[in-house]
Write a structure and sequence with these properties.
This protein is mainly alpha-helical. 66% of the residues lie in helices and 0% in strands. It has one domain. The protein has 2 helices and no strands.
Length: 47
């Protein structure tokens, strides 16, 4: 879905531009959202 694509795009952009660091709070928010999505089957086992 669109959210999965956006997260993959974000991860890709961050890996291509390592100077663009997430803050700890942003990282925690993304991780919590990802875990919640996995718990509801939204990401189908995506890393």
């Amino acid at each position: 879905g669109l959210v999965h694509w956006a997260l993959a795009r974000l991860r890709g952009d961050l890996s291509l531009h390592p100077q663009l660091r997430l803050t700890a709070a942003e990282r925690d928010t993304i991780e919590a959202f990802r875990r919640d999505g996995q718990a509801h089957g939204l990401f189908h086992g995506a890393a």
